[in-house]
Specification:
The complex is a heterodimer of chains A (277) and B (142).
Chain A: H1 3-24, H2 28-40, H3 44-69, H4 74-97, H5 100-119, H6 132-136, E1 141-145, E2 148-152, H7 157-174, H8 179-189, H9 194-218, H10 224-247, H11 251-273
Antiparallel strand pairs in A: 1-2
Chain B: H1 2-16, H2 21-54, H3 75-83, H4 87-115, H5 119-138
Helix pairs in contact in B: 1-4, 2-4, 3-4, 4-5
The chains are: A mainly alpha (277), B mainly alpha (142).
């Protein structure tokens, strides 16, 4: 295959990955890894490098809009980034000793968990009484809705911080944003309203991914010939996805993508167990 | 440099009115957008040169991992690549701009919390910045 053909096919694949990631809410990076390893037979280490930069691109691109609308809780994001960045550095350190087949199996598990998370019901608990720690850390905030400003309080800061550390480790190890775990930490543990937790998680993914991307760049995991079509493709796919989400009800599409991603994840795990990586 | 000028402007602004959270969020939002757009444009320029020069060659074997050479893994290597108009070097520089976007965002937040005189969050932001700088300068080599 010539470089031109490879780049064009990869560009199209990355576009679809960005679209799927955006419609399911999984993020652009996560779909890139199976695309590159299973679809193009590329070494998982190059795939991790490309997925990391794709995560930064989609996170920064979409976060810019939400930050401007004032939905993102910047203090909450910054506080929890202590957990995710330290976790990401630890994850990148563990990755040296972790066999690539084990990484593939863990990746499959995280992917299935993430797909399941997108299917769960979303309802915000109202009248949450915030904890002392949340008040002292100034994490309670408000966000604009069509019916006016909604104020909210948070609890279980320690629990949320712990899950965030794990999210950081996985993000550093696998090169993904691990948005699903971030949302779990904020929604389920800290009772952050859904809209705030998704946008804040998205906002945090760029910083978390950057913490391990600087390591992977120096380790030679980021191959420009792969990263370039992946960045452009995933970014364009994510933009299309966001536009589709605004215009139509994507419930069915989301279900189809989640099932497809689960099958892909099982495939990754199967190959991992058979030492194919 | 641009950041320093920017923060001076903000301080000047502060003397007239209190610079609200919303204004800072708008600045950070714009910054993220500029970072992503410029990174994509740089990578695209490098990519177009790369494809026009090497497009018809057969693709390299990516199925086996062999670490990239130093010209694509060190900052000086990548910058040298850009100045010698090395297509792959330019593409990799686009990647570097992309990775630096969230880092610059943190530096920007650091200034904004400092202007708000929120000491606790200046410290928190500084810790996050240190973690990233640690991983950047050590490369986490064990």
């Amino acid at each position: 295959m010539s470089i031109l053909t490879f780049t064009l096919i990869l560009l199209l694949g990355a576009y679809l990955a960005g679209l799927a990631g955006s419609l399911t809410g999984l993020g652009g990076g996560v779909v890139v890894i199976p695309l590159l390893t299973l679809g193009f037979n590329i070494d998982i280490r190059y795939a991790i490098g490309a997925a990391l930069v794709a995560s930064i691109a989609t996170s920064s691109g979409s976060a810019s809009a939400y930050v401007k609308e004032g939905i993102t809780n910047m203090r909450l994001g910054m506080f929890l980034e202590i957990a995710t960045t330290i976790g990401a550095v630890i994850g990148a350190a563990i990755a040296i000793y972790m066999p690539t087949n084990a990484i593939a199996v863990i990746f499959g598990l995280v992917l299935i968990f993430s797909a399941a998370m997108t299917m769960r019901k979303k309802h915000d608990k109202t009248d949450v009484i915030g904890s002392v720690a949340a008040r002292k850390l100034k994490l309670n905030s408000s966000y604009p809705t069509n019916d006016g400003i909604v104020h909210y309080q948070l609890k279980n800061v320690v629990g949320g911080f712990s899950i965030m550390s794990l999210a950081g480790v996985l993000s550093g190890l696998l090169g993904i944003g691990s948005g699903a775990l971030k949302v779990l930490a904020m929604d389920s543990a800290m009772r952050v309203p859904f809209k705030v937790s998704t946008t804040t998680s998205n906002f945090m993914i760029g910083v978390t991914a950057a913490a391990s991307a600087v390591v992977y760049l120096q380790r030679g995991y980021i191959e420009p010939g792969i990263a370039f079509p992946v960045i452009i493709g995933v970014l364009c796919g994510a933009i299309t996805g966001t536009k589709l989400l605004r215009r139509m009800n994507v419930k069915l599409l989301r279900l189809i993508f989640s099932i497809a991603i689960t099958i892909v994840a099982l495939n990754m795990m199967y190959n991992g167990f058979n030492n194919k990586f | 440099m641009a950041l320093i000028i920017n923060s001076k402007m903000m301080v000047k602004d502060l003397s007239n009115r209190i610079l609200g959270d919303r204004d800072l969020q708008k600045i950070i939002g714009t910054l993220l957008r500029i970072g992503v757009i410029s990174a994509s444009i740089i990578a695209l320029i490098g990519g177009v040169i790369y494809l026009s020069v090497h497009g018809l060659e057969s693709m390299p074997d990516y199925s086996k991992f062999h670490s990239e050479p130093a010209i694509y893994t060190t900052f000086t290597g990548i910058i040298n690549g850009v100045f010698s108009l090395n297509a792959r070097g330019i593409m990799q520089f686009g990647v570097v701009v992309l990775i630096m976007t969230p880092v610059v965002r943190i530096i920007c937040s650091l200034f904004s919390f400092a202007i708000e005189k929120d000491r606790m969050y200046v410290v928190i932001t500084f810790i996050v910045l240190c973690v990233i700088l640690f991983s950047m300068f050590t490369g986490v080599k064990i």
